[in-house]
Amino acid sequence: MTSILSYFIRNAIPVQPRMTSILSYSRAHFAPGRRVYYEHSSAGRLAKRLYEILSSPGECIYLDATDVLTGASADVLIGEPGNFQHLCTNNRIGKKILWCSRSFDRGDLFELCDVALGVGNRTSLSRFPEAHRGKVHLTNYSVGVAPNLPSPASRKNEFIYVATEATELKGFREVMRVWKTMSAKLHVVGYMNDPEMQALFRESNSGQMEYHGYIPSDTAAFRSLLTSCRYVYLPTHLEGQVGTLIEALYHGLVALTTLESGLDERVLEHAFIAAPADTETQAGCVRTMLAMGDEEYAARQQASLTALRTYHTWDVFDRAIKTHL
């Protein structure tokens, strides 16, 4: 009997311990088990993916970045800056991972964390304080399944500005300055809550622009509008990775954007790039893009899609995050 028992002990499959974790992000963008309005935004997609990664090997406590929690134990914490210090000092945490949606200068948080993770490119990384840059690791993410795309020749020679909200930081002022001088069609998608941006749109629009409001990215209306256009114009000032730009590229648009968009440089090689405030260069790029023939457009579109499908995937994101758990 003893020998039989010894055999099973020697050959038993080891049981992996369940990991306990805390994810502090934003309930406005993701809430486990229920739908929220902004779940298809970039923040919503990232929060959902992080939650899935953390909860697959065990239990994950999900918090808003303003929540308070004391006395808990966790093997891993991934947290936004808002309540990161509180969670680290009032709970028993194994690995402390600071989540960086974009750069910020908080030396106390960088000293407290074991590693800082986020999404972005080399321009994004350069915006972090040099003293803490060694702790920062940035990767890429995706937006879901790419749609079936129409032929390049069937698209209209039109542009679209698409953001969750049309703001100065998302380059809307520059877009209005440039498009005031253009006769081609520009579609504008996103909330426009700032009265100054509303006034700028009215002053700049002489009939060549059409405002669609905010359109959720999981709708047929959103997909139809994107696949009807050739180009996306988003000269953002923000670093990180702009989800609506990734979405547009996955729908086959060719981009005019900035290095601050945060997309992988190997994808941006196939876009038109200008500095965020350089409206003269941006206007020149618009004119060049409008003059492109079908063959040139199709080649650039295909190159962009190939790079995007290689470097901006969820597999790339998952591997990068799991490396640091």
Provide a descriptive summary of the structure in words.
- There is one protein chain.
- The chain has 325 residues and is an alpha/beta fold.
- The chain has 2 domains: 14-139, no CATH class; 152-311, Rossmann fold (3-Layer(aba) Sandwich), CATH 3.40.50.2000.
- 38% of the residues lie in helices and 22% in strands.
- The protein is built from 13 helices and 12 strands.
- The protein has helices at residues 2-11, 42-55, 81-89, 107-112, 122-126, 172-179, 195-204, 220-228, 243-250, 265-268, 279-290, 294-311, 314-323, and strands spanning 19-25, 58-64, 73-79, 92-100, 115-119, 136-139, 156-165, 186-191, 209-213, 229-234, 254-257, 272-273.
- The strands form 2 sheets. It has a 6-stranded parallel β-sheet with strand order 2-1-3-4-5-6, sandwiched between helices. The protein has a 6-stranded parallel β-sheet with strand order 9-8-7-10-11-12.
- Helix 6 (172-179) crosses helix 11.
- The longest helix has 18 residues, at 294-311.
- The chain starts with a helix and ends with a helix.
- The mean pLDDT is 92.
